[in-house]
Amino acid sequence: MKEKYLPIGTVVLLKGGHDPIMITSYCVYPKTDKAKLFDYGACIYPTGILDPDTVHAFNHNQIDEILYMGYETKESKELSNLLNNSINSYKKKIQEQKESAE
Question: How far apart are the C-alpha atoms of 12 and 29, rounded to whole Å?
């Protein structure tokens, strides 16, 4: 599977899913649990966002199949690299904090 973060507009099918979803955002925190961070926010494809308070949040490892690749530009590739590096640094920092607390 391609490295995270796929371009906005990419349509995927999740493992165990029946309906395609389209990536609309990155790094989504659910309203109910700000401690969780998901790689992507999405809407059902092709209907789109029917309720602005509903975002389908998921992680890259939940993707079963890429059905359509969104528009890629130099800027979107740079953002993907920045997000990957930032998330990896964040995860490393959290792990170091856990280890020093033990």
Answer: 20
Distance, in Å, from the CA atom of 13 to the CA atom of 22, rounded to the nearest integer, reads 9
Per-residue pLDDT of the chain (102 residues; tens, 9 = 90+): 556 899 999 999 999 999 999 999 998 887 777 678 899 999 999 999 988 888 899 999 999 999 999 999 999 999 988 888 887 777 677 777 778 877
pTM exceeds 0.70, yes or no: yes
Residue 4 lies in a domain: no
* Within-domain flag for 3: no
In a domain, 54, yes or no: yes
